[in-house]
Amino acid sequence: MRNLLRTGLIAAVALSSSLVAGSAQATPPGPGVKGTVISQTTIGDKDYILREITIPPGQSTGWHYHDGTLYGFVKQGTLSHFDSTCEPDGVYKAGSTITEMSGSDHVHIGRNLGTTPLVLDVLYVLPHGAPFSADAPNPGCDFQ
């Protein structure tokens, strides 16, 4: 019983330490940001995934990058897109398209600075089995 309690306590401390460490560096999406998979297929070693992403007013995607190229279409609202220099690399209104390049050297954040929900349709072209995105630390910008 004593060993079981000790093992449980060690596991709890390890888990809480990893959660704290992960939270300090990652910049997850803001509250209410949602992504819904519309369709998905794999051809060869590539996954093609179409998602609809909704970002409420005042929220963001969090800093991140992708292991593959993304092609987006702004259905509603305005996307303010920033790169790792903290400078905007584009403002995309409804009807606009955007391409996001792959790799950890393309860290970026998408923000909804408007007053209406931002709705994006995004085609992910990823290596088979790759996650949609990888969280990245804020590169030193005064916003999230």
Automatic annotation (TrEMBL):
Residues 53-120 form the Cupin type-2 domain. Pfam families: Cupin_2. Keywords: Signal. Residues 1-26 form the signal peptide. InterPro entries: Cupin_2 (IPR013096), RmlC-like_jellyroll (IPR014710), RmlC_Cupin_sf (IPR011051). It comes from the Bacteria. This is Cupin domain-containing protein. It comes from Streptomyces spongiae. The lineage of its organism: Bacteria, Bacillati, Actinomycetota, Actinomycetes, Kitasatosporales.
